Amino acid sequence: MASNKKALLVLEDGTFYEGSSFGAETATYGEIVFITSMTGYQEMLTDPSFAGQIVVPTYPLIGNYGINSTDIESSKIQVRGFVVREHCPTPSHWKNQMSLDSYLKNNDIPGITGIDTRSLTRHIRSLGVMMGIMSTDLTVAESLRELKSLPTYDATDFVKEVSTTSKYKWENTVVEPSKFNVVIIDMGLRYNIARIMARLGCSLTILPCTATASEVMALNPDGVVLSPGPGDPALLRYSIDMVTAILGKVPVMGICLGHQLIGRALGADTFKLKFGHRGGNHPVRDLATGRVHITTQNHGYAIAPETLKGGLEVSHINLNDGTVEGLRHNQMPVLSIQYHAEGSPGPQDNLYLFERFIQMMEQRKSI
Amino acid sequence: MEKPHKVLVIGSGPIIIGQAAEFDYAGTQACKSLREEGIVTVLVNSNPATIMTDQGIANIVYIEPLTLDVVSRIIERERPDGLLPTLGGQTGLNLAVELADAGILDKYNVRLLGTQLESIKQAEERSLFKKLMNDIGEPVPESVTVNSEEDAVDFAGKIGLPLIVRPSFTLGGTGGGIAYTMDDLKIIVSSGLNASMTKQVLVERCLFGWKELEYEVIRDSADNCITICNMENMDPMGIHTGDSIVVAPSQTLTDREYQMLRSASLKIIRALKIEGGCNIQFALTPSPAVARRWAPDQLNVKQSEYYIIEVNPRVSRSSALASKATGYPIARIAAKIAVGKRLDEIPNKVTGKTMAAFEPALDYCVVKIPRWPFDKFATGDRTLGTQMKATGEIMAIDRCFEAALQKAVRSLEFGKRSLLWEDKGWGNDGTLDSYPLYPNDLRIWAIMAALRRGKQVEELSLHTGIDPWFIQKASNIIDMEKRLLSETLSRDLLWQAKRLGFSDEQIGTLADRLPEQVRELRKDWQIKPVYKMVDTCAAEFDAETPYFYSTYEKENEAEPIDERKALVIGSGPIRIGQGIEFDYCSVHSAWALQEAGYRSIIINSNPETVSTDFDTSNRLYFEGLDEESVRNIIENESFLDQRYIDCPSIVQFGGQTAINLAGPLSSSGHSLIGSSAEAIDLAEDRRRFESFLNSIGVPQPPGAGIMSLKEALDTADMLSYPVLVRPSYVLGGRAMEIVNNDEELTKYMKRALDLDSSHPILIDKYFEGREVEVDAVCDGTDVLIPGIMEHIERAGVHSGDSIAIYPGLNLTTREVNTLVDYSVKIALAMQVKGLMNVQFVIMPGQANEQSSTYVIEVNPRASRTIPFISKVTGIPMINLAVKVMLGISLKKQGYGTGLYRKRRLVGVKAPVFSMSKLTGVDTYLGPEMKSTGEVMGIDHTFEGAMIKALMAAGLILPPEGNLLLSIADKNKKEALPIIRGFHSLGYRLYATEGTAAYIEKNGMRVTAIEKKLSQGSPNIIDLISSGTVDGIVNTITGGRIALQDGFHIRRAAAERRIPCFTSLDTARAALKALSQGQRVYSIKPLSEYLA
């Protein structure tokens, strides 16, 4: 059970919410973001794209089916803090191994429960994402003072924090013999991307985010996947240089942050969305087919369409707000999408995009 | 696809178990949706108590029976170029299939819109469905379709028992069941074969105890697919989903499971090529706590397994629930898709910003509980299984499951029963078996009671098959009960209790305070509910929908409406005695308020209805109709930054539920629009009412309100038997009986006093005269009576179960004048403002004397007959009443006083029963109401209207055939002319021994059935079950004793769906109608009858 210890969440504009502490009883700070997926809290927690953020699921009942060893997107909890209306201390599921509370404790991540998360969500929706701090011992004033002294989300390169530091081979669920040699640049890799690619017959080498173009090309890949990841793409000069150098030489698939980097590498700008897209119900229109797909999204930045140039075109848009959801290039083999075709959590409707990338590699190979 | 010009929409007919108000909601949305597209809509439905059959919803409205012949004639007349088959429930779907199969659609070039015939058949015919699922690799339970008992037994030999039996093409799972033994199997298969339109049943592997999930899916013609909502049945596989407690979204599924079933759903809707909505049901690997007993093969699974159970290729009860649970209007969107629109072309009216191509995100928990009729049918079999038994349902929304569950239970309108209620006999021997934990309507209370006495979550899960997650939540409620019992009531404790959904009354009971004291404490401590919006998007976008639920949280989103406004109190779940009529009234009152320049606010808890559609009123509070909830809402609407804004309530339109709130609201200082609480009390309080009628010189049957057995016996002695007994504050004649002697009276009184000793019991002299009914609207000066309705059945049959005829055809001018005179007197003296319903009994005079008229009952509110009388007279009763209540006189509205001119038409309202679903319930007509719905026949002649009403109600006899007669001795003489009539029309007569002798003596040929039931075959039941007879006339021998053979006759008739007349009056009317031949009726739109 969670302790009944009071905990306080204070936003940078002075708004505060009182709840009870669960998980680790430590203080934390970060950018407060909400996510509307109704299932998949374990996948959310382990999603590296949430690095530096305090995550608020809008669904109020969290932890119902416990924690298991398979529904993970990285090796550890990535969020800075977890804010819920109610966590479930007595989960029920055949896969369940521990409660959410224990999981957070084991990972030394604090949670706060009993919060009017809908009110918090409405606040963020109206005023935009902002920094927040949660603790069990600070007053509102102390929290605000503390928050001022801490670095802001936008100024931090979280990619380096979440990326692997050394090269490794993906060894789970590989279909033998592999048909394609694919390099994944880990800027916050979600495991499900690797699981899907491996299932489709790819042998995967995962490289750190700092890998240079020559390091990538030295592996002689059939294709390169630029993974999703946290934060502002503009901070990632090193990745942008690498992407610029490999584009056109090898089929490249960019997902989320990877997609933003493709844009920036080809001269487009990115900007920060007011409160981001986070959830599993975002409709995206494929402009080529007119079809609408329901997608998983988790991003705070987006490509500015008016800055596209050099053969780069919008291929997908978000039906809700018209933002860019995908790019294509009139010459280069590039598959670039802002949303998470791998779902997890979220719909599995977009797995065809991985197949499309496979075809891209096939065509390239047959030349 | 080319857009059609004129579309026929088929409704679902009367409310029966398995098809309730959800199809009025769906049909109304669809008609509105199509009209927005500039399409002319033609609607046919036999149910007058629906919004969809109102002028202004569809362009052309037919209130006609839903038969192949009738609808073919409508098509011939109207020449629509499209037919929308998927919005009228199973009835509408089956009829569309019949029309197509009969070649009518081809003949008149009518295109089926949306989902095509082939898809419908693929989804509904089990063998085709199974083949399709196999083709696309989706798992279905091993099964075989059989059309004989022998084949079913063979299959059982191969895969073992238990097996589940499902008939094809039926309503609400009629005729299905689970067979644990070979004997069970034979019985269930045989009844299923009877119920199936195609004489086929499916026998399949039983997945009892598995998790049961539903997905609501939509697909457009461009193959865009989305899921609207998933729902988890708290009750596992084995209980019809319509009889299950359901929660949305799913609570115990991991994302992988959620997506696995979602992906399967999309795959299936694509394979079926459905254009519109469909509902897909799944079974999923249960928790180990459940699997240990129910599905041992699932204990060591490495991957969750699932099976596809069923697909409904149409909008359904579940889609109505999903629409209300998410805010996404499925029927409206399905109608647009049917005429060729794509999801991304249809705006989401809730947010006003996004498109219909998205999946709703919920940030609350929804609980639905079915409303079962066992409070009315104490002898009915309460066991729940694959055959649905609930008449309606309620839904509650909150931010946690515990609170949603508790609200839902209180919304059931089951007395004032909260989760604290227990049956006195439970748990007395300490074992689990002493609680009714088997699937039945009381199970949720039994679980609470068992937990209260220390039973463990795990053992209850194992026993019931309910996932431990749900039982644990119930246990959290019990923990709070214990705290409230033992701890000092602090602000923090009270806050936490409110967050878990405890009512002030529950808290009062546990913490030893009066509910009002708890309310005061809450005020002092500033604990009041806030209202949050149902916005389809979990607050991601700023939504415009005015749809709210209460919860105890930090932020309130429902700022009071700062304009002239009024609160319409709805009627809660559809149940026997309080049906869809009152939703009809609530909707019209909301509209009338808007017309008069007021903002309308509706409060209701029923997810099936038009009243809880988010655009029916200016604001919707989805809440229970208990005093606390309503007062909280009024208070929320009354103050804006300390400034008072008047928010009066209208209690006349929500049936007895709403009228019962008049007193409490009034005494807590809230204003009412319309008749005062004082006037309402005058009508409801027997003693006051009696002296009131005396004072204005209106006679009533002698009687009294009494509080004790002795008083009862004395009164009965004075009145002389038979007497009519009933509790005051009645609902649908609940517990009303005609008693003939002291013994019966004693028995009745003991039972009644045991249930409720705080209100008096009413005893009246029972007059077996003609019953007549009047609805009136009164503004304090004038009293408008739109028409008089005469009942076919004599007094003693509940008015809701009687066939009513407009205008009174057998009344003398003098009688009419008396009825009008009494009605006007009562309305004016009672100071009615708004509606009033008066029921009369007319006793024939002795010898040459005149008849005398007595008032039996006055209800100062909208009655069950308001939709009917409004439709047959064309007078918009609710609209007039609301405006009168707002101070616009009848004169100003263009109406005078007295009886409105008679229309040159005849309207017949006939009751419809759901008796085939309710085993163990006796079907004879009596003072207790039993019908679940109604139909209307309208024509220029009595015969035409009557024939149509009987057709629509399923009471029509075929043109020729066999009639079975079993008439009590006391009725034989009266029955003779009726028997002669049927005989001369060419019906062959069968009769029980005594009746046969009587018929023979009177010179008619008859086949006597000599064997009593106890004497073996062939007996009467064999005759009925074999399909030999086409209709039955059976009167009861009297009292409630020794009904045995008659009871079985009536049950067999119900199960076989054969017309069975238990009142000679009904039989006589049916005979009269039939005497002119079967096709004497006309088919016209309602507006032409009224012209």
Walk me through this protein's architecture.
The complex is a heterodimer of chains A (367) and B (1091). Chain A has helices at residues 41-45, 100-106, 117-127, 140-148, 159-162, 191-199, 213-218, 237-246, 257-265, 352-366; strands at 6-11, 16-23, 28-35, 53-57, 61-62, 81-83, 86-87, 110-113, 130-135, 168-169, 180-186, 202-208, 223-226, 252-255, 270-286, 292-303, 312-318, 324-329, 334-337. In chain A, helix 8 crosses helix 9 (257-265). With 367 residues, chain A is of the alpha/beta class. In chain A, the strands form three sheets. A ten-stranded mixed β-sheet of chain A has the order 10-12-11-13-14-19-18-17-15-16, with helices on both faces. Chain A folds into two domains: 6-155, 3-Layer(bba) Sandwich (Glucose Oxidase, domain 1), CATH 3.50.30.20; 159-366, Rossmann fold (3-Layer(aba) Sandwich). Chain A has ten helices and 19 strands. By secondary structure, chain B is α/β, with parallel strands linked by helices. Among the domains of chain B are: 6-113, Rossmann fold (3-Layer(aba) Sandwich); 117-141 and 207-362, D-amino Acid Aminotransferase, Chain A, domain 1; 142-206, ATP-grasp fold, A domain (Dna Ligase, domain 1), CATH 3.30.1490.20; 674-683 and 767-903, ATP-grasp fold, B domain (D-amino Acid Aminotransferase, Chain A, domain 1), CATH 3.30.470.20; 917-1074, Rossmann fold. In chain B, the strands form eight sheets. In chain B, strands 29, 30, 31, 32, 33, 34, 35, 36 and 37 form a nine-stranded mixed β-sheet that branches. In chain B, helix 33 (993-1001) links the parallel strand 39 and strand 40 (1007-1009). The relative contact order of chain B is 0.08.
